Amino acid sequence: MQSTTRRRFLLTTSAALATTTLRNTPAFAAPRATPAPSPDEVLRLLQEGNGRFVAGAITHPGRTPADFKPLAAGQAPIATIIGCADSRVPPEILFDLGVGDLFVVRVAGNYVSGAGASVKGSVEYAVAELGVSLILVLGHSQCGAVKAAIQHLHDKDALPGAINDLVNTIKPAVLESEHLPGDPLDNAIRANVRRGVERLNTLQPVIAPAIKSGKLKVAGAVYDLSTGKVEVL
Known about the structure:
- The chain is of the alpha/beta class.
- It has a single domain, classed as Carbonic anhydrase (Beta-carbonic Anhydrase, Chain A).
- It is 42% helix and 12% strand.
- The protein is built from nine helices and five strands.
- The protein has a five-stranded mixed sheet with strand order 2-1-3-4-5, sandwiched between helices.
- Helix 6 crosses helix 7 and helix 7 packs across helix 8.
- The longest helix is centred in the last third of the chain and has 18 residues.
- The radius of gyration is 18 Å and the shape is globular.
- The N terminus is likely disordered.
């Protein structure tokens, strides 16, 4: 209970919601009037939330229309999650956060390089307009997109439709990690996350300057489907 109260206090203070009560108001019920918590503080909040999820002690608010209503006027999330479209990887649940806390961008394979304007533009919007202080590239175990990239790495066959383009975009991560010791799939998943972090760290004109100023941090992590634990790389 003490951890939950502290988390809500931090989030609510960041959103300048001093006039509302913590008990009845979801985090960030109005657009942010003050800066988000520091990048390291946000990362800590995510890790604490994942710890509650792993322990089966989640405390996230309800998801009824009443919980969404206070957010109708605007949003002020603290972090952007670039996650996989996999149905087993819902960030709000994995990090035990509530409505309006996370700005989530999901694409099969959670890749950044080659993802195009829809992904990069969404992330830039979260930084430039919504003021998030952390971007987390979130991979996960047994990722089907990475599996396909490994399977078709040296094949001459083409997968149907745009699936082929998606898999080809992930192949560089497989090539980068194929000579490492250990499980090839796990290695490729981690390499894919690291490549995403590296790309964002140099992405102009919005992301890189925000990182240099200290207002923004980019991190990578991998979610283990079997344990529920998120490991920050």
